[in-house]
Write a structure and sequence with these properties.
Blueprint (H helix, E strand, L loop, with lengths): L1 H35 L2 E2 L2 E2 L5 H15 L1 H14 L4 H13 L3 H20 L11 H40 L4 H14 L4 H15 L4 H23 L6 H15 L7 H6 L1 H21 L3 E2 L12 E2 L1 H22 L14 H11 L1
Antiparallel strand pairs: 1-2, 3-4
Helix pairs in contact: 1-2, 1-3, 1-10, 3-4, 3-5, 4-5, 4-6, 5-6, 6-8, 7-8, 7-9, 7-12, 8-9, 9-10, 9-12, 9-13, 12-13
Length: 358
């Protein structure tokens, strides 16, 4: 069981290591474009800045490749080169059906294990040469496409519709509970269907003249990348060099309100990272709501400060949520750290150990 979990973690880490440059490049280009574009009640305005729009489009293209790369190399880690096509296909379709990085991980794992099974099927020696370049890609690609479009696509669309109705019915009830739920949703899949449901609900409330809902979302949106980036700075020895570099990129993306900056950490260690960022975003969202933060633009992070009501409370909400995320994930990673060797304290014990060694 332990060996299987270690192999699974290795597959996820392989996908993450290839996806990080796409996340960093795309996210930072998008962040730079948004940072210099005028912020309006409808979000960043690129109408008078064609060069910034070009930078934004290039960043968006790089960012869009992240899901196929993540899924493709998870599959590659499991099944080798024959796993690339179904993995890339599954990741692309995950973006099309708005399944986010969790859908991409599922597609990559499914593709890899399907290819592994197909590779073990006994075939004629005349078919063996074309199996990895023709037969396996067609069969595995078809199965992955079927999974993503027919099995996952419809439930995700249905979920988004029902969740939107549920949030709408809650908007007239307890605001603190609603803010808590929105914060958890924003962080859970970092740009996936659950995140988008909460975000679009907050954006819809702007049109209704209720800016507090978007204020809560705006604080929650940037907390996952800021919290994870802060964690890598607080306890550098807990993190690899690659993770620390991803942490710096995550901070840059968090400042501009790009939740996806936390994806590399969540994809490689979901059981610890996702609860940590959910707790941080929930706290940020509640603090922002209690502080009556109002966001007049459908965006999040410190970049929207010019169009935010009660800016001090907004900063406190983001800071408290980020610190909670950083503290939680570093606490959970303590068990991975090597224990210091015990020091022999007295001569009798030393002699006993010496005799046993001899």
């Amino acid at each position: 069981m332990l060996e299987s979990m270690q192999k699974l973690r290795q597959h996820l880490l392989t996908g993450v290591s290839y996806a990080i440059p796409f996340i960093a490049c795309g996210g930072i280009l998008i962040a730079g474009a948004i940072a210099f574009a005028p912020m309006t009640p409808r979000g960043p305005d690129f109408s008078g800045s064609p060069h910034l729009k070009l930078v934004f489009d290039i960043g968006s293209a790089a960012f869009a490749l992240m899901l196929p790369v993540l899924s493709g190399y998870i599959s590659y880690s499991i099944a080798g080169k024959p796993g690339l096509l179904p993995g890339f296909l599954g990741g692309y379709l995950s973006g099309q059906i708005k399944a986010g990085f969790l859908g991409a991980i599922l597609a990559g794992l499914f593709a890899g294990y399907v290819v592994e099974i197909l590779k073990k099927v006994p075939v004629s020696k005349y078919l063996r040469p074309i199996m990895p370049i023709l037969v396996i890609p067609i069969i595995s690609g078809g199965l992955v496409g079927l999974l993503m479009i027919k099995v996952l696509g419809t439930p995700i669309a249905s979920f988004m519709t029902h969740a939107d109705h549920a949030l709408m019915s809650m908007s007239t009830g307890n605001g603190v509970i609603l803010a808590l739920i929105l914060g958890v949703m924003i962080a859970f899949d970092m740009g996936g269907p659950i995140n988008k449901t909460a975000f679009f609900f907050g954006a819809a409330m702007i049109r209704e003249g209720n800016y507090q809902i978007m204020g809560a979302c705006a604080a929650a949106i940037c907390t996952p990348p800021l919290g994870m980036g802060l964690a890598t700075l607080m306890r550098k020895r807990f993190w690899t060099m690659e993770e620390r570099e991803a942490g710096l990129a995550a901070i840059a993306m968090g400042l501009i309100g790009i939740t996806e900056g936390a994806i590399p950490f969540a994809a490689s260690d979901p059981l610890r990272v996702i609860p940590s960022i959910m707790a941080g975003s929930a706290l940020a969202s509640v603090v922002a709501f209690v502080g009556r933060v109002g966001d007049h633009a459908p965006h999040g992070g410190p970049i929207v400060l010019p169009v935010v009501d009660h800016r001090g409370a907004f900063v406190v909400a983001i800071t408290s949520g980020s610190l909670l995320t950083a503290a939680l994930i570093n606490f959970l990673k303590l068990r991975d750290q090597p224990k210091p060797k015990e020091v022999v304290k007295d001569a009798d014990t030393f002699e006993t150990v010496k005799q046993e060694v001899v």
